[in-house]
Amino acid sequence: LHSTERSCLLRELHRFESIAIAQEKLEVAPPSPGQLKHVFFHNALPFVGFGFLDNAIMIAAGTQIELSIGVVLGISTMAGKYTQVQNDLCSCSSSLAGYVEALASRLGLSIPDLTPKQADMWQTRLSAHLGKAIGVTIGCILGMFPLLFFGDEEEKLEEKN
């Protein structure tokens, strides 16, 4: 950096540091219930999409793998656990998580307006973790929809044996 650039950078760093020190001394109120709801939904909605995709892909791909490789090798789904391994290795749903978050932001899901201290408070972290847990649970339940279409195939497979 040039000497003028270094001095400008140093000035800005000192200014930023003094603002951070001033904010540390301020007593910050905990987030309001409305802010905590915003944090909850901000974390829950993308995880609904992630849980949906994760379960739907795992069920659809797992069933096909079970009907092909599992039958040939004589391995049950629970014994092989290859459905989950396949889903994790392919990272299909994990790579789609970015798209789910981008879609959520396009739908107007804004970032909660919190100070750094408020974002680090236990109430905010609890709200965020609950949102993720409840969101992924709802998404996984919704992602079970492929099971509605597999009843006939399993009955046909049992009749053949």
UniProtKB/TrEMBL annotation:
Membrane topology: Multi-pass membrane protein
Principal cellular location given in the protein's record: membrane
GO CC aspect terms: membrane; mitochondrion
Keyword line: Membrane, Transmembrane, Transmembrane helix
Subcellular localization, as worded in the UniProt entry: Membrane
Pfam family, one: TMEM65
Record bears the keyword Transport: no
Transmembrane segments: 130-151
A GO BP entry: cardiac ventricle development
Superkingdom of this protein's organism: Eukaryota
PANTHER family registered for this protein in UniProt: TRANSMEMBRANE PROTEIN 65
Name of protein: TMM65 protein
Organism of this sequence: Urocolius indicus (Red-faced mousebird)
